Amino acid sequence: MSTINDHFTVRVALDYHCQLAEGPVWDTRQGLICWVDILSGEIHQYEPVQKIHTTLQIHQMIGSMALCRRDTRFIAAIHDGFCFIDRHTGNVSIIADPEATLLENRFNEGKCDPAGRFWAGTMALSEAPQAGSVYTLNPDLSVTKKIDQVSISNGMAWSLDHQTMYYIDTPTYTVKAYPFNKQSGQIGVGITAITIPEQDGYPDGMTIDSDGMLWIAHWDGWQVSRWNPTTGERLQCIALPVAKVTSCTFGGPALTDLYITTARVGLSETELQEQPLAGSLFVWPDCGFAGVPAFDFDV
Asked: Beta strand pairing status for 233-239 and 2-4?
């Protein structure tokens, strides 16, 4: 395993501090990196060439979002359920709330699968164990529960052949691999593909590169790591100057820039002084690896 500790390799992409930045998505059509600030109820969009940063205020917690294939809206999972969000005005159009009676739950991480379904998981606001579930919002706008008894639903990725779904329930310190049927959206029984050492922090968000390797952000772990999901071997470790590393994705014209979201929520004044960049969006330009385009919602 190689360790990259040079903080000058990874730099701040935008001088803006989120409370709990998450869910970065690269918009290949517009050349934008998009991400959410969960607790502030915001969607951020940043165009790195012209250095244009815009913010949409959603007025409630937003766990995740993705792009729509045939129009300019976001598909998103917010406290009130699945919704469309107008990218210009921030107007919210609720589609369905599968946990309308579970007022102490909220949505967290979500992504689209290779067939254009939007997957998103829930968790208890109190972080009570096994209180959440994972759902899919199908292109016909129906909702299906996929996984239950989830504690903190987090990273998702699909193998390059679209036959495996990788998934992180953070407190388990594992990445599960589920057999995945692209046509039906059904998953089989999950097995443990990767186990994260507890001293390295909690596994959070995740992406996959063009070699089929998984990149995992470590909450309270000061790092992003690269893993082989077939062997369970850790291949690289990228050090960050902040503890709460939340997610990552590849962007840029050739998808060779690694964007990394972080958080500052829960840090003491002393910790904030030690980590003044906490909550920033970081980037490792031309990192030597390439990603694959994010899947869009099939609408």
From this structure: parallel
pTM: 0.97
- Taking phi first (over 0 means left), then psi (-120 to 50 degrees means alpha), and beta for anything else, what does residue 51 get? left
Instruction: Give the domain range for residue 246.
Output: 2-284
pLDDT in tens, the chain (299 residues): 666 554 458 999 998 999 999 999 999 999 999 999 999 999 999 999 999 999 999 999 999 999 999 988 999 999 999 999 999 999 999 999 999 999 999 999 999 999 999 999 999 999 999 999 999 999 999 999 999 999 999 999 999 999 999 999 999 999 999 999 999 999 999 999 999 999 999 999 999 999 999 999 999 999 999 999 999 999 999 999 999 999 999 999 999 999 999 999 999 999 999 999 999 999 999 999 999 999 999 99
Which of 204, 209, 257, 296 does the annotation list as catalytic?
A: 204
Beta carbons within 10 angstroms of residue 217's beta carbon = 30
- Asked whether residue 292 is assigned to any structural domain, the reply reads no
Is 27 considered catalytic here? no
Question: Domain containing 41 — which CATH number?
Answer: 2.120.10.30
